Amino acid sequence: MADHVRSQIREEIYSLLKNLSLTGCRVYKNRVYPIADLPGIIIYNGNEESEQDIIGARNFARNFEIKIEGYAKSDDDLDEIAKKVEAALTDQTLGGLSKDLTLISSEFDFSDGEEPSGVITMTYLINYRTTLNAPDIAL
């Protein structure tokens, strides 16, 4: 069995964002470890809501939030990360995994860790569909 479609979506986004000109290979698929070398990107799951597509059917429409955090030392670099991410995520189907991909918010914050930095959190809403017994196959 393949990975859950959510994992496949996260992996596809990772492949589209790795090696952007500003962040290079400093792109990570979870929040467990902090970014030590800036600028960088972390990709992780947000909330998901699902509902039955059609009464009596076993298909589910899912609305999944994925968070993309960009870390940098300046607002200009945060804006550049946002520009690169938005330009990289133009295929709304993510290679056939989703029905739609929409940037729904961007939030800015300041991190005062060992090295002060800024963070932009971009939230994308991804609509995808699966069946009840095959959450690893996108419809």
Describe the protein in words.
By secondary structure, this protein is of the alpha+beta class. It has one domain: 2-Layer Sandwich (Alpha-Beta Plaits), CATH 3.30.70.1700. The protein is built from two helices and five strands. It has helices at 5-17, 75-88; strands spanning 27-28, 40-52, 59-72, 100-111, 117-131. It has a five-stranded mixed sheet with strand order 1-2-3-5-4. A hairpin with a 6-residue loop joins β2 (40-52) and β3. The protein is elongated, with a radius of gyration of 16 Å. The chain starts with a helix and ends in an 8-residue tail after the last strand.
Give a quick summary of the entry.
This protein has two helices and five strands; from the N terminus they run αβββαββ. It has 139 residues and is of the alpha+beta class. Strands 1-2-3-5-4 form a five-stranded mixed beta sheet.
